Amino acid sequence: MSKKIxxxxxxxxxxxxxxxVDPQILQKHVPPGTAIxxxxxxxxxxxxxxxxxxxxxxxxxxPFHVNFEEANLRYYIKRLDGAQWKRGVGFxxxxxxxxxxxxxxxxxxxxxxxxxKMTHQVIETTDNLFVEYSWQKRNQNRNVIRVxxxxxxxxxxxxxxxxxxxxxxxxxxxLTATSTIEYAVAHPRWEIYPVTSFxxxxxxxxxxxxxxxxxxxxxxxxxVFLAKGSDVTVKMxxxxxxx
Length: 243
Fold this sequence. Notes:
Strand order of the largest sheet: 1-3-4-5-11-12-15
Order of helices and strands: EEEEEHEEEEEHEEEEHHEE
Strand content: over 45%
Helix content: 10-25%
Low-confidence stretches: none
Distance between the termini: 17 Å
CATH topology: Acetoacetate decarboxylase-like
Structural class: mainly beta
CATH class: Mainly Beta
Number of strands: 16
């Protein structure tokens, strides 16, 4: 595993809208050598909104690319490395407002980044924390996710759905039919805010494909979480061949 850091940043206010899906719709996305990771027998995907702050790429704070939003759709996978299962994530879509970030991630990691106009709001009072992420591609509808939570941090319980969603420390992308890219993501165990209400208004078909519509559009999520976040490092990718 590479020890060189590609990106460092502070990820904050991670809103996770989690939905159960038919695992068959994920199979075409699953990189070689990995398998779907289930929670209580359920295949989950997450629509995620969060903030990149104090971002450095290859140790450099690139002008106008330091603080920005990201929205993505991710799914949960694992890879057997010797006797150890590595728990990770794969992505159907990743959206940022900065073209340099998208281009470099796609080049180095074979990711699925695109760009859109993005905004966010974080409003905290003594008894409520409101977080909103909004993004809009050209000639498409505006997409918005919103979360209200109690501003009282809690630890993530062992064996909980929150632990399953947040505690994945590897990313995987297909490189060829027989090779996969693996990269490590390092951060401390996060704390969460208790969510009290939420809303999601997204054009799921245009964002992610019609196969996801029956499982997300106008459906109650399996769960919705909000994490405080922390400093994060993303290591340089490693190619896994001969799978």
